[in-house]
């Protein structure tokens, strides 16, 4: 079953060398809401499977205005090269000058490509079947440039920045990834009929890059039509590339189509650093600390991280255990229609890992 | 004796492509239902005015200014005509600030989603569609998104009024104020302020991405959604997709000074124009929306029931709905049902 042997090697990136006798150090940012508990489960599973990864935990307090915490986190990631993170809440009771910590992290580390692989999972009931879409979203500019000002009282301008460099860069990433994964079509999502210069530039860059990949079909689709197509016939999409905000919309639609935020892992790649998290970046405040959150997305994200560190066997072992657990409907957590608890799911995953004869510690 | 309702004039803009034939279908159905509507047909193809500026023909503007209510079919998008989009021109001429799309699942037209019953209300004059873009330096483009206090307050007020007048329970503001702190923050603040005056309506806020995520899993949790321009554009089309596409989705545009233009939002379908194959449902449901807006709820309900019954029955469906009947046959079936309902 090819589903079980997915690896996420990125030829473009050199993971940091293992330090101190074959063990990697990874920055861990617990975040808010369900982040801390899910990441504890990741550590539990890693400990159990004897994964040679040590976590350097860095807390970021979302309730303070200063940027010391997030800067510490960024420094730690520069040091270790790789991070696993929960979402840091953005309190919009605070002044607008207090920017999203998550966004600061992405832009400071130039994690320009957000990659999400949305696949229908066999054990999960959804309205649409056979979805297999890779979404590559520009992760540093566009509508997320955080450049806003009140020009006159009661009139706010928010700037969306599109640059040739970043558009070429993300298009190139998309086509390289498509070729590496043997995918046949890349669709650029845009609104260039309205934003003629901005999205027009993005589209033009995609076309330029596409001409260098004659083996891959390139087409484009306007974002509103895209969402309409996604809810009626999502199977038509293969690889999709787009600027930041449309990426936000499309990735959330796709995550919803394959079963929700608890299932899909996400990765943020730059030339030098990589940060892994759940694809839809939810804080999940309302379900925090109740042992009901779905650990799948975060655990699958940790597997993506293991692939990135070239620890392929560990990644496969944990991933296979997760997919096997997914087939047990009675264990499904509330978000996918069941009544299982987070800890039941995690225990079952560990049991599957153990049953495959891998070296494990006591549990 | 029956109480005779005064005839009200509506400006009818048949549009291009299949526009004329679906407009005829609607007029025929209205006649059968004896709706007190007098149609005044007008063409809105842009002409160059005295100052060299493009404008809609003066007789069209005059008709709309007097009647206040319009029904519009699909308009051709000009590629090399030199003039701007007609829809844009109409929007600017009548300050059509609110785009309203009720999305209700049509029983009998199956989609993976059932029980959808929500309304998207989109601010239609500013936001990301300000059209202000600059090349800063070669290779760097800046597009400006404009959010103003006035436009945000106006759309929020419309949303709450709509909810009250249409017996809806809640209004949800859709935003991305975590990222666009000032602009969406302003929009959100205005919505909150207006909500204070409508304590009978529940007010909630939700991130755009969370709405998308939840919408495709369980659309029944949503009622009335209000949002700035771009999010509205995307979400209204997403919701149209849930119920079956633009061929069955009604739409209304509310303007200042009491003007309202209801329209079908699908294309002109030039390949089937004039062949009696078109599906008039979208325009018909928009016309029903119009009747409700005018307070003629009984006529609106009657026509909508007849239309839904025809679709549910599946005997006389146009090609896009899965059948192979003609537009005229579909229309005739609806008319027959209306007569039976009387």
TrEMBL record, chain A:
GO MF annotation terms: ATP binding; magnesium ion binding; NAD binding; oxidoreductase activity, acting on the CH-OH group of donors, NAD or NADP as acceptor
Principal subcellular localisation of the protein: mitochondrion
Subcellular location: Mitochondrion
GO BP terms in the entry: isocitrate metabolic process; tricarboxylic acid cycle
Single GO cellular component term: mitochondrion
SMART domains, per the entry: Iso_dh (SM01329)
Keywords for this protein: ATP-binding, Magnesium, Manganese, Metal-binding, Mitochondrion, Nucleotide-binding, Transit peptide, Tricarboxylic acid cycle
Domain called Isopropylmalate dehydrogenase-like: residue spans: 25-349
Subunit architecture: Heterooligomer of subunits alpha (IDH3A), beta (IDH3B), and gamma (IDH3G) in the apparent ratio of 2:1:1. The heterodimer containing one IDH3A and one IDH3B subunit and the heterodimer containing one IDH3A and one IDH3G subunit assemble into a heterotetramer (which contains two subunits of IDH3A, one of IDH3B and one of IDH3G) and further into the heterooctamer.
Similarity comment: family membership: Belongs to the isocitrate and isopropylmalate dehydrogenases family.
Function: Regulatory subunit which plays a role in the allosteric regulation of the enzyme catalyzing the decarboxylation of isocitrate (ICT) into alpha-ketoglutarate. The heterodimer composed of the alpha (IDH3A) and beta (IDH3B) subunits and the heterodimer composed of the alpha (IDH3A) and gamma (IDH3G) subunits, have considerable basal activity but the full activity of the heterotetramer (containing two subunits of IDH3A, one of IDH3B and one of IDH3G) requires the assembly and cooperative function of both heterodimers.
Descriptive protein name: Isocitrate dehydrogenase [NAD] subunit, mitochondrial
TrEMBL record, chain B:
InterPro entries the record matches: IsoCit/isopropylmalate_DH_CS, Isocitrate_DH_NAD, IsoPropMal-DH-like_dom
Keyword NAD (UniProt): yes
Primary localization class, coarse: mitochondrion
Domain Isopropylmalate dehydrogenase-like positions: 9-334
Cofactor (UniProt): Mn(2+); Mg(2+)
Gene3D superfamilies xrefs: Isopropylmalate Dehydrogenase (3.40.718.10)
Superkingdom of origin: Eukaryota
Entries under PANTHER family matching the protein: DECARBOXYLATING DEHYDROGENASES-ISOCITRATE, ISOPROPYLMALATE, TARTRATE, ISOCITRATE DEHYDROGENASE [NAD] SUBUNIT ALPHA, MITOCHONDRIAL
Family to which this protein belongs: Belongs to the isocitrate and isopropylmalate dehydrogenases family.
Name the record gives this protein: Isocitrate dehydrogenase [NAD] subunit, mitochondrial
Organism this protein belongs to: Dicentrarchus labrax
Record lineage: Eukaryota, Metazoa, Chordata, Craniata, Vertebrata
